[in-house]
Specification:
The complex is a heterodimer of chains A (524) and B (241).
Chain A: H1 2-19, H2 41-54, H3 59-65, H4 78-87, H5 93-101, H6 105-119, H7 128-132, H8 140-152, H9 157-175, H10 185-208, H11 213-223, H12 230-243, H13 248-257, H14 266-277, H15 287-290, H16 292-303, H17 307-320, H18 324-333, H19 342-354, H20 360-372, H21 377-390, H22 395-407, H23 415-421, H24 425-441, H25 445-458, H26 463-475, H27 481-493, H28 499-523
Chain B: H1 2-13, H2 21-24, E1 31-32, H3 37-48, E2 74-76, E3 86-93, E4 97-108, H4 117-128, E5 131-138, E6 141-142, E7 150-152, E8 175-184, E9 190-200, E10 211-221, H5 224-229, E11 239-240
Parallel strand pairs in B: 2-4, 3-10
Antiparallel strand pairs in B: 1-11, 4-8, 5-6, 5-9, 7-8, 9-10
The chains are: A mainly alpha (524), B alpha+beta (241).
Amino acid sequence: MQNRRRFLSWGVLCIAMAVGMPSVMAQAVPAKPAPWRDAPAGYRSFIEKAKQAEAIKDPLQRCLAYPDYPDNQWPAGLAAAHCHLVFDPAITLDDVRGYLDRDAITELDARFKADLDRHFSKDRFSEVIHRDFEGFDDSVASGQLSMRWVEMAPASPYALTARGQYFLAMASKARGGKWAADTPSENMQRMSEFLDKAIENYRKALELEPRLLQADAGIASAAGFESRRDDVQNAAFAHGMSVDPACKVLTATMMVNLEPRWGGSYAAMNTLAVQLSAYVPQRPLLALNTIWPQVDAADMASKTDSYNAAASMLRSVLINSTNSLAFDKMGRWLDYTTSVDRWEQLVILLEASRFGQGTQEANRIRGRLLVNLAWEPKWAIDSLKAAVAQDPGDAYAHYLLGAAYWNSGAPAQAEADYLAAMKDAGTRRAALHELTRAMLSAHKLTKARKYVDLLNKEYPKFAPGWMTRGSVLLGQGINGEEVTQALRKFEATADPNDFRQMQELQHVRAMLKTIDKTSEASSE
Amino acid sequence: MIRYVWMACLLAASGVVAQTTTTLVLDPQQKVDGIAQSEYAERWWQWAMQLPDGVRAYQDPTGAQCGMNQSGPVWFLAGTEGTMRVKRRCDVPGGRFIFFPVIAMNVHARPGRPIGCSAARSQARDNNDKLAEASVILDGQPVQRISSHRVSGTRCFDAYANAKYLERREDYVPAASDGYWIMLGPLSEGVHYLVVHARYDNAGKPSGDLEQSFEYELHVVPDESQLRSMPPLSRDGLIST
């Protein structure tokens, strides 16, 4: 009897090894070179350089080292200027808090003034002053800090601008993202109240420092929320243009305000684009704005589900500008077009990531393509971590992140994300199955058993789950009848339309035949 | 000082009936309409979270929306997030009790950041154990012994129970409430001034440096229809201990 058990044990083990793991999306770490080496030549070279750049920790150096989009016709110096705009060191909320804690108001203002002066310097030109205010968003921390700063320094144009930024962001939050007709009146009223406060603070700032274009842009942006403030908007834009007719941030604000959806027109947008084009040789960052009429037109096409037309409109934009939002949109829209070159889509989404984090959907799609197409699970982790941070309820992003961890050789790390993916019915079965297998890979056999029990209970007709059960039992040192039962369940539930399951079925049937013969011989 | 003189003049002009804070402020153990103040604290959070971020009562810069979603015998007033010092004007129907936080915490789970009930209660309690300052002045008269108005929830609850804007409300459960709350008896018709200031001193902890200041100009107006439908206002009836 003891000998028969040993025979069965080895028999099952050999067959389990022969049939391998059931077919699922995520598989073991590949031994061969990454498949992107077989991508079309232009894309292959791009991906290779992008991967090298990804290894650079410093964000500015990473951006500068990143490859340019293939066959682009970007204005000279645009990519580098864009990198500096996004990644040059800027003043943070923590910096501001530190100055306030030390009661160093004068020093704090001096730092802001130094950055403002650079906006008007020929030798040291920079628009970093705008980024100095970026941290002042709609967060509680931003609200508390800007209030404290204004109370400590009521005559600081920078404190007042920061306060304006906070109220502008709160107005946007109160407004919400729906069309006006679908937005409750209380939201519109609250928005209006915050806009009043924003404009009041910006105006005080400009009285103290008329060169503060961030305040002009803020007023123009605030006024753009309500048509009744058109005069305020026009006055702010006129004032700002008199200070600097080529400010990237002010002109971007106006370009958005001129969109048809806000009461403007493509004719007006194109007029501004032509006006700005004259400055592009000296101020290449303006190329981020001159293409905005095409981006908006494409955006409108996408809203009627005309993704082919929308993508077609954006192609020329990508050739002429590094605008990362355009790359982000294109990368997302390609998922909805009738035909798509996935390598091109990946390259576009990588280029989008060069200049910033991007949208949640773009991060998820980039992660998906890095896992499934380029076979770069480790590279995918950052994109997918960003995607789940931006939307913790996105079960599919969690599923992909779990797969990325597992396939990067860190199966134990995959557990939390697979569990999160199981909260959604659409990804539950696949996530639970891969979670079981990841725990098996991580030699966490108790967990693997717990999860496979759940898998078999919830999805008794899911054949690969029974195969995995056999593997888990063997991993636990359990053999004999329980394993045989799992194989019989696999045989009974295998999907005849699934090629891989049918291949496995042949092995399983041979195995079961051997087991039955041995069993009969033993009985005799 | 000047402000109080001005306020006193206004009070005289508006013919406010003499009410003292001593008689108006309910003890924390006193119930209203058979409901404990700890439950009113939970209901207050559910009222506050009924609207999405940006439009909530504690983010109201003017008081223009103070009447949103009010119902029943108790009228809720809002504090702030510590991001604004606000002066709000609010019309309050007569005969209503008035309930507001001097300073309070609501700790709850959120998507991707689950929390257990005991941890939520512990975090909500933490800052309130470190109350540094608290003052409430009603019509120029300070409310005494604010520290005795601590209302700690004995259970967890769903702060987003009325938040129809959320797709997955369960991600925000559980929640725990702790803080210092005041329940005022119905104010006389006319104008009343409420000034609240409070702060924690719990360095390094989330919201451990929260400081809030808010003022209300309360216009108590007749509301006969509401009064007819309300239970009698007495310690044996609407108020109970």
